[in-house]
Amino acid sequence: MIKLELIRALKKETKLNKIDARNVVEIFFEEMAEALANGDKVEIRGLFSFYVKHYKAYIGRKPKTSEQVKVKPKKLPVFRVGKELKRRVDYQR
Question: What is d(CA 16, CA 90) in angstroms, rounded to the nearest whole number?
């Protein structure tokens, strides 16, 4: 599913017009992104959760030249699937 399909589904289920449905989806994703940028966890019980994982700096190696390079510390979002979603996906096999 892509964002446009989500907008269409929201429009159909709620009888919102397309602009309002798009705004709801945009607000939802923007708030999730903002929460992660602030270091907060985003959790929809049973479905999924996102959180930010912190990685320390380390010495890496370029594969072609074997030259050592310093890799800066970084933060990356991590996705974890919820129990209900796991069950639903596994059920469809």
Answer: 33
| End-to-end alpha carbon distance in the chain | 19
How confident is the model over 25-63, as pLDDT tens digits?
999 999 999 999 999 999 999 999 999 999 999 999 999
Spatial distance between the Cα atoms of 71 and 29, rounded to a whole number of angstroms = 30
Cα–Cα distance measured from residue 2 to residue 17, given in angstroms and rounded to the nearest whole number? 18
**Rounded Cα gap, residues 8 and 18, in angstroms:** 7
Between the CA atoms of 37, 43, 49 and 54, what dihedral angle is there, to the nearest 10 degrees? 40
| Predicted TM-score of the model (pTM) | 0.75
Q: Which CATH superfamily is domain 45-93 in?
A: IHF-like DNA-binding proteins (4.10.520.10)
* Bridge partners of residue 51, in order along the sequence: 78
Domain boundaries, the chain: 1-40, 45-93
The residue whose two tokens read 């320390």 is 56
